[in-house]
Predict the structure of Fungal lipase-like domain-containing protein.
Amino acid sequence: MDKISAEEMKNEGETTAKESGIESHPYAFHVSGPRNVSSPNWKDLINSSWRKDANYKRTVMACFIQAVYLLELDRQDNRTEQNALAPKWWIPFRYKLVETLKDERDGSIFGAILEWDRSAALADFVLMRPSGAPRGVLALRGTILKSQTMRRDIEDDLRFLAWESLKGSVRFSGVLKALKAIADKYGSNNVCIAGHSLGAGFALQVGKALAKEGIYVEAHLFNPPSVSLAMSFRNIGEKAGFAWKRIKAMLPSKADSQISCEEGGATSFPVGLKQWVPHLYINNSDYICCSYTYADGAQNDQTAANKENAKQTTNCRQAAAKLFLSSKGNQKFLEAHGLEQWWSDNLELQMAISNSKLISQQLKSLYTMPAAQLTPVKR
């Protein structure tokens, strides 16, 4: 993609914004949107930015989530189709809105399904979808602290804080149903789910639920929540449990026992099955999500205490995620937790395949399920 196309896209957005009277709105795409990407063109048929440039995909996913925030704000402010802010955040990338996800309790919009807009692409002589561009994207917003939706958003925030689970929320079933529908329609390889903050929490847990059924959907999770009372209590229990295991390791053993990945008759996934590896975007200064970077020290202690048995566990699949870490020194919380940072021009990321303690806790159930529950991978 060339810079001329990027400038043309900005100029087009500015012209449209002036005509609709939202030229100076801080959330207008041409004001606060990314300045280093352009809309798809015929060159993408040869060298797709979706496939070659990880920064491009991250930027577009963040823009789609921003569009969901703005869909709800457009609804609250009674904006019309002519002056709505949200569409400007998906139209430049040649996607279209096909469905909004609404909370039945207050009517608020918390998610949206976007699909590749073939007609708009053909108008720009893009004859086919660029390689790597998903056919469907399910985007989920986080908490909005405005009166019309704040109560239900915070209710789910507190649900996660207390139980580290969102399955009891009405939004969970809605997201799960929507993601299954587009995965069935287009195939899981052609679908992405993306979320920010609370939305990333839903995306992680729904994506994991589908992975247990053998449906693997690419996931992009921005500033996912990592702090909960349930996790704190579990950590205390784990430390006590590891201490007891180390004591037992010093005692004479009656007989060698068969080791599995997890106690209670669980078994690891066969090597031939696919592993679900979500993409996590973390800022070190964001106390809501920074726990994902903590090393699994307790696991290391357990390994050291069971050196003789370690060889028998080599077939166990380790839970892992692609971790993209932003470290800019001390930042204010709103900046560190904000979505806008993820399409910033000067963003510097460190990427690693991580199996930190929290990632292991979140995903280990995928690889230690009872044998009767194992489901073959669905294409």
Notes: Confidence is low (pLDDT under 50) at residues 1-7, 232-236, 254-272, 298-315. The radius of gyration is 22 Å. Strands lie at 95-102, 109-116, 136-140, 191-196, 218-222, 279-283, 321-326, 349-354.
